[in-house]
Structures are given as structure tokens and as C-alpha cells.
Specification:
Elements lengths: L2 H21 L6 H11 L28 E5 L18 H12 L11 E5 L10 H35 L2 E5 L11 H8 L7 E4 L6 H12 L5 H17 L2
Parallel strand pairs: 1-2, 1-3, 3-4
Helix pairs in contact: 1-4, 2-4, 4-5
Amino acid sequence: MTNEQYAFLDKFRQDFKNQIKIWNTFVPDLMDLQKQAAKITDTPDYPFQTPIVYNTALDQITAQDSITKIVIGDNPGKDEQLLKNNKYLVGQAGKLGERFFKMNPELGTDFRKNVIILNKTPVHSAKTAQLKTIAKLGGTSAVQLIQQSQIWMAQKTVELAKTLNAQIWLVGYSELKPKGIFSLYRDELKKSDYLDSIFVYQHFSMNRFTIDLTNYRKENDSQTLSEALTNLGTLHREEIFGI
């Protein structure tokens, strides 16, 4: 990347770290709320270590790296929030995403080298739906945290993508719909002038991304893999954003 691009990325990293410090003051008992939400939904016990997760993989990016995509997951899960990780998409879903690009070298994308992974919010929950429970349990401050973090992430992600000239891949879109927990994230992206470079897909988890893509290619077998990804991502974008 250019010096200007790397400087922008470095500022993004610092701003992100500083913003997480601010968000950590919103709900002092956030970890307790996360534990309650997990218990209510019968989630097996696991160690709660990082309520709001910064992706430390960002700090491993150098000026010599070429970033072509920013992949947006939902929010940090059980593996991502562990102190030994504090990285996004390192669980089973991330392994499936990594495997997809390894199995398709014609795309020229190394999932751990050419992709920046971000989330719609850095607030942890074992399952994305638990964010609604956390918001209900925590009241106004928890609601503000989840909402404001989405808006900030959407705005800053677009700025970063534009600067790096990278595509944005939204993986997982059920909660982007009007009544979904991430509807604010969608609405903020919709305001941008970068929608043509935003593509929407099924999530990597449970192999839904690959199954959806495979089914699409069966009906459009004349398209190359790259063409199918672009057209499928555009089709889902139109479904979610309405344009």
C-alpha cells in the first residue's frame, strides 16, 4: 500500500483502540450482562475475558501488505474474545472463510494476508442474537453502546475501504434487515457513496456462504467464480439495501 494508505490505516487502528476505551466506560457491568444473556439462552459455560474486542490482527498489517477486501462479520464470539486471541473470525466460521480462499487460488486472496476483518460491532456475545438480550438487560446505556458502536464502525469502515480501494464484504445479513440488531449499521452504510463496492453474502458459519454460492452457480453456470461472487453479492445487496 502507499505511504498515505498505511498512514490512514495506522490512524484507524489508533482511533479504534481509543474508541474501545471510551465504549468500555458506557456499561461498567457489561461482562455481567454478557454472562446473564448467555445463561438465559442456555449457552454452555465458557471463560468471559474481553467484553469489547479490538482485533489485534490489525496490528500485524505492514506497509508492504496489499489489502483487497474488508470482510465484515457480526460481532466477536466466544473464541474471538479470549485474551489469547482477541482476533476476529478465528473460530469455525473463520476457518471456513480461510479454506474457501485457499481452495480458490484464482481469486488471488489470502484470507489472513489480503483481508482486513472487522465486525458490525465489537461488543462480544456468544451468539449474535444475545446482543438483544444484553440491550434489554442493560437498559439505555447498553442500547447506546450497541447502537453507537455500529454507527462508528460503519462510518470508519467505509472511510478505510475507500482509502485502501478495497471491497467491503458483509458476511451474514439476517440481522441487517429492518428489525434486525444491525439495522443501524445497514442504514449508515446506505448513506455512503461507496455502495457499489459493498457486497453482501451468507455467513461463513455452517458453510452457508459456500452453499449459497454453489446453488447460485448451478443456476448461472456460464459465470466464472469471480463473476458469480460479484453478481451474488450484488443480488443480496439489493435485497438488503433496497437499491
